[in-house]
Every structure is written in C-alpha cells, then in structure tokens.
C-alpha cells in the first residue's frame, strides 16, 4: 500500500520537470473551476495565458493519469482544459485546405495525339485538342481533349471536331456566370456569427458551405456537358454527308447529290470528352470510345463503353421499343454496334446522345490520361495501354518543344507562377500516342485508330 501510494499521489522530492508539470496542471484546474463558479453566464472556458512568451499547450497526458486522487473540481478543470486545447487543432487542416485550393495552377498538363486510318480506306476518326479553352468562375483555366469516331462517313466526326469546343465554351461560360450569381446570392443573407459560437463551429459552417459550393459546381459542369452533347447531336442529325452545314447555323436543306442518299444513311459519331480544371478530371462519354487514367501503375477507367448488350442499355433499348440483334456482335436493330452516339437519326429513340459523366479528383500519383477510339481498345487492354504510355513518358527525352517554335504558356488568372500547360503538342506525349497506335496496328486492329495522351506529371 505504501509503495502504491508513493507511486500515484506523492510528489517527487526533487524539482523535476514532471513535478512542475503536475503542479501547473492542478493550478490551471483550480483557476478554471474558480472562474466557472464566479462567471455570470455559461460559456466556453478561456484558454490559459502563455507563460513567458510560449504557446498555449494542453498538459501532457501523464499529468491526468498521475492525479487520480485530486478533487472533483480539478477533474472538471482538466476536462475544460482539454476542450479548450482541442479547438485550435482544426486550424492547421483548414489552412492546408486553403493552400491546396489556391494551388490549382500547379497541376501540369501536356498532351500529344495520333490518328491513323489503319487498315481502312477512309479515315472517319478525329481528335480535338484545346488547352486553355476557357476559364471557370474562379478564373482557373479549363482544358479540353476529345476523340470522335465517325460511322457512315467522316463528316459527323469532323463536325464534332469543328463545333464541339465552340458549343462547350458557350455552355461553360453560361454555367460559370450562373454559378457566380448563385454563389453571391447565397452569401448575402448569411448572418454574422454570434460571440458565443466557437471557432470550431465557425469552421464547420465554412466547410459545409464549401462542400455545398463544390456540389453546385459539379452540377453546373454536368449540365453544361449534357447540353453541349444535345446541341452537337442536333448538328450531326441535320448535317449533309457532303460536309456542308458544319456550322452552328445549319441550313435546312442541301442541293448536292449526297443529300438524297443521306436519307437512308446511318451517319453519326461517338464522343469521349475530357475537361481538366484545377484538380478535377471531368469525362463525358457517348459511345464506345474510352478514357482511361493511369494512377500509380493502376489502370482506372473513367468511362464505360455503351454496348447494346450491356444489361442496363439493353433494358433501355427494349423500353424504347427497339431490339438488340446479334449480327457480328450485339447491334441495335442489327445495324449499330453501340447504344449511344451523336447523330444516327434513323435509329432514334433507341440510340440516344445523353453522355455518362464522371468527375475524378486528381492525385499526385496520376501518370497520364489516355483517350482513344475502339480501334485501340479492341486489341489492347487498359492495363497494357497505361503501362506502355507511362513507360514511354518516363523514358522520353525532351519534355517540351522549344518556346521559339511557337509554344506558349497560359498565364494564371490570379497570381502565382505560370501553369505548366503548353499550347502545342509535346514530343514525348506524341511518341507515346504513336507507339500505342502502332502497337494496335501490329495487333491487326481492323478500325481507324485515334489516340490522345495527356501527361499529368511535371516531368524534367
């Protein structure tokens, strides 16, 4: 009993560091208990004043365990001290989040593309590359990369190449203006925080507001992409096979010989569109072209092919009164080997233009993003494509074309260093795309092959 009591309750004889900490903890506890009993109204206990210019710190855990025989007042004082010391711990994470939000321009983007006719006589694929297409509501640049795989002729894919970025820029500008207006409206009626509310509660409210804004932002992006695909589909349906009418003001009729033949044709295009803004990857897909992200050596599909035999797509087609027939694979009405596309007027309403949209947060482990038509994915798996592109990007020599050759840097809109975004294709990314296309050709791909490789790392 004597040994146990000496180990728990008795103070050390010497003026050791442990003894000083214990005495300080009890003094703080008595001070808080006295203040709590004499305060006119309940409220959060004040933090202890720093001693000799030092920072406010909570007593070490050993001071609580070594004073189990103290009075109840001391226990309540220690509990108050723990609450007061716990509140400031959220501040560093908040500052870190703000620092992360301000560093959107640090995310690098470099790109390259290749399009091959392959074993076909006619080239029906196209690619669209538009770095710094427009700016979002907060001023951060938005970069557009897309692949279009035409069917029944090249003009539908060519029309998408010429007009999709124009349409999307208009829709994004309108969405950004509406987002900023709604954001200002939501901030105006906000009441000033009361003096009794703690800093932790204020931080919680700020985090909830930021999460709500992020959710509204994603809704705006999805809406802009969906409207853009609908407008591009209207152009693809009404354009003539001769290529005329490939503008936003499509003529109602064309006098060429192909206009009459167009009436019985099945003409359209797939579309896989990737938007890069800050630390977000936004992918919209309609058809069987695909987007795959290489992250830390793992292939992460950001889109899923719209095939007629996909269970959900087959159910939708049957609900629309259509049929899925197996003629050299599953086909809508035995004609089209995909369930969603732009154009294909005679296959509506079974074939729709509504895209599936995914939003992915970028990571420092991201290596590259690959967009390609089915001419690549029919013969090369996601894993092999990511491994080949990543290895090519890591082993490549020059990182960027010289500035004198015409490349330019897009300047950030709000301070900081310039983002690593070239306005021209990078040789290293071009070689990665070319290697993938040649590999698909060597594996006897029977279709056009179009590949876009976006390097997501700042390589030196």
From TrEMBL:
Region (Disordered): 1-99, 184-220, 397-423
InterPro entries named in the record: PP2C, PP2C_BS, PPM-type-like_dom_sf, PPM-type_phosphatase-like_dom
PPM-type phosphatase domain span: 110-456
Record-linked SMART domains: PP2C_SIG (SM00331), PP2Cc (SM00332)
Cofactors required: Mn(2+); Mg(2+)
Enzyme Commission (EC) number: 3.1.3.16
Catalyses which reaction(s): O-phospho-L-seryl-[protein] + H2O = L-seryl-[protein] + phosphate; O-phospho-L-threonyl-[protein] + H2O = L-threonyl-[protein] + phosphate
Sequence ranges of Low complexity compositional bias: 184-202, 401-419
Keywords associated with the record: Hydrolase, Magnesium, Manganese, Metal-binding, Protein phosphatase
Example GO BP: regulation of intracellular signal transduction
Record field: compositional bias (Basic residues): 21-33
Enzyme's top EC category: hydrolase
Compositional bias segments (type: Basic and acidic residues): 203-212
Keyword rRNA-binding among record annotations: no
GO molecular function ontology, one term from the record: protein serine/threonine phosphatase activity
Pfam families for the chain: PP2C (PF00481)
Protein family (similarity comment): Belongs to the PP2C family.
UniProt protein name: protein-serine/threonine phosphatase
Organism: Triticum aestivum
Taxonomic path: Eukaryota, Viridiplantae, Streptophyta, Embryophyta, Tracheophyta
